[in-house]
Structure formats: C-alpha cells, structure tokens
C-alpha cells in the first residue's frame, strides 16, 4: 500500500467517524413536541412554544390547561405530558433525570439504558430503567402505575430504603406517610388519568423534523417561578445561582423578601453578611527599633 492510498483511507475513515458521531448526537437530541402551547423557562427567560424545539438541561416546562406535549430523545425514551403539567429537566449533563412538580406524565423506555431515568417528586423518588409507567404528582401526593418493566422507589426522608417493583404494580405516597403498594391502580387514579395515557406511547416526530429555537421571550417574574422556588425538590438547590440576577431588580427582589420564611436560602442574597474589615499588617517592634538605631 502506497502513501497516497493510506492517506485516502485515513480521510475516508475520519469522515465516517465524524458522520457517525453527528448521527449519534442528532439521534440523542431530545425534542419537545407541543400539543397546544407550552410555557418554557430557559435560563431566566420565559417563552411560549407551539412548534417543535430541542430541549436543554435546566428547562422548566408547563403545558396549558387544555393541551399537552411529548418529549422524544431519538434513543427510545418518550415522555408524554398531560394538561396542566409542570416538569423540570435536570441540569446535570447526563440528562437522565427530571422533576415532576405537578400533573400527569407517562414515560416509555423502549430500550434498556446504561443508567436509569430518575424521576423526582415532592414525596417520592423513582428510577426507571426500561418499560412504561404513568405518574401523577402534587405537592403532597405522588401516585404511579407500572405498566411494564420495573422501577425502584425511594422516599426522600428514607433514601437508604429502596423498594423495587415490577410491572402491574401501583404505588402511592402522601407526605409523611408510608409507601402504599397495591396490585392494581386506585379507582380515582384510573378515573383522573388522561385518556391518551391508556394507549402505548409511540414516536410522533417526523423523520426529517427540524426543531426551531424559542423566540420573543420575556424576563421571568416571581409569579412564574414561585411554585418552583418553594418546591421540595432537589433541583431547587440550583435556583439561587440561576435566578440571582433577577433579585437585583424590582419587583422580584421585594417579592422574594416578602417570602423569605419559605425561601431561607435567599437570605444571603438579599442580606449578605458585612465584609470583613481588612487586617492591618503589624510591624514587629524589634524591626522598628532596629530601624531607629540605624
């Protein structure tokens, strides 16, 4: 093999590797497919979204009272959001975590992934490796039904105690109460569940879908963030650093001050401790006397 042939082979190999990497990255890009209008909070900006967009870690999403949405990552994970649902995508780079503040979601993982998908709610944590599950959450209650596959459940106040469950199991937990596991869903759960959640989830994004970028955003207000700022969720720990710039202006600053009882972590932002006085450097007495003598 001559040098020219070798170089040509290396170029082709490099091009194929780049193509594979591009296709893999595109396949793993999670798309939000709205059914109606979805409110997106990205960074400190609020957008109204009604066309497909690529979602990012840290996004806060809220469907309207008569709409819904679906998130598809191209790797076999689908998350359907019912009407009036609010979720957060974990800010961690691995992207395998979400927080459900309120409402209904259904998750399907067609392929088992190396890491489970973590779902955080106010009173219950769940980890789904593969299968399908329907969840409903409010500030003080979480209920879920595992259709297929398996999950591991933990309680925020008993993180070391894990409860593995397989398909065809229902679990419910109210704040400060034990986990209630049953072989079938509660009648109220079935009656309130969104009708589309009774059917298996499937990809709905066109093969050549080109997600757009959100536009015409506005600065987030305290009303936009109030429920998130006080939520008993792990993602809350990232909010002070993220939304600190909003506290530099009014009326956000005053509204946070009025709610400091529920937002103790913001006290250092509004009332920073006084700066330590600069210590004067003392000159040793011996050194002073030596200078006089000389």
Structural class: alpha+beta
The proportion of residues in beta strands is: 25-35%
Which fold name corresponds to the CATH topology of the largest domain?
Jelly Rolls
- Estimate the global geometry from the Cα principal axes: globular
Mean pLDDT: 85
Task: Round the Cα radius of gyration to an integer and report it.
Answer: 26 Å
Extended strand count: 16
For the record, the CATH architecture of the largest domain stands as Sandwich
Note the total helix count: 7
Helices and strands, in order, run as HEEEEEEEEEEEEEEEHEHHHHH
Number of domains: 2
Main beta sheet strand tally, sense and closure? 16 strands, mixed
Residue windows where pLDDT falls under 50 for at least 5 positions: 1-27
| CATH top level class name of the largest domain | Mainly Beta
Helix residue percentage: 10-25%
List keywords for this structure.
about 290 residues, alpha+beta, 2 domains, 7 helices
Task: Describe this structure as you would to a colleague.
This protein is α+β, with helices and mostly antiparallel strands. The chain is 22% helix and 34% strand. It has a 16-stranded mixed sheet that branches. The longest helix is centred in the N-terminal third of the chain and has 25 residues, at 3-27. The radius of gyration is 26 Å and the shape is globular.
Summary?
It contains seven helices and 16 strands. With 294 residues, the chain is of the alpha+beta class. It has two domains: 29-198, Jelly Rolls; 220-270, no CATH class.
């Amino acid at each position: 093999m001559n040098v020219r042939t070798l170089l040509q082979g290396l170029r082709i190999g490099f091009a194929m590797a780049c193509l594979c990497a591009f296709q893999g990255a595109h396949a793993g890009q999670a798309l939000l497919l709205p059914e109606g209008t979805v409110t997106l909070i990205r960074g400190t900006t609020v957008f109204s979204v009604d066309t497909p967009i690529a979602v990012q870690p840290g996004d806060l999403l809220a469907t309207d009272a008569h709409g819904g949405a679906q998130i598809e990552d191209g790797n076999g994970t689908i998350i359907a959001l019912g009407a009036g649902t609010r979720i957060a995508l974990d800010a961690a780079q691995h992207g395998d975590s979400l927080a459900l503040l309120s409402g209904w979601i259904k998750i399907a993982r067609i392929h088992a992934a190396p890491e489970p998908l973590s779902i955080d709610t106010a009173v219950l944590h769940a980890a789904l490796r593969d299968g399908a599950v329907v969840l409903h959450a409010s500030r003080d209650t979480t209920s879920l039904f595992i259709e297929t596959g398996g999950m591991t459940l933990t309680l925020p106040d008993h993180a070391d105690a894990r409860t593995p469950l397989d398909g065809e199991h229902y679990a419910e937990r109210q704040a400060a109460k034990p986990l209630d596991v049953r072989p079938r869903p509660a009648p109220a759960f079935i009656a309130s569940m969104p009708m589309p959640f009774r059917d298996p989830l499937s990809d709905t994004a066109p093969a050549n879908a080109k997600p757009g970028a959100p536009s015409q955003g506005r600065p987030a207000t305290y009303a936009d963030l109030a429920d998130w700022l006080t939520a008993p969720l792990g993602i809350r720990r990232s909010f002070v650093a993220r939304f600190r710039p909003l506290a530099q202006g009014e009326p956000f600053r005053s509204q946070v001050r009025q709610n400091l009882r529920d937002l103790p972590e913001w006290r250092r932002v509004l009332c920073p401790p006084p700066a330590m006085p600069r210590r004067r450097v003392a000159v040793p007495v011996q050194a002073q006397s030596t200078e006089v003598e000389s």
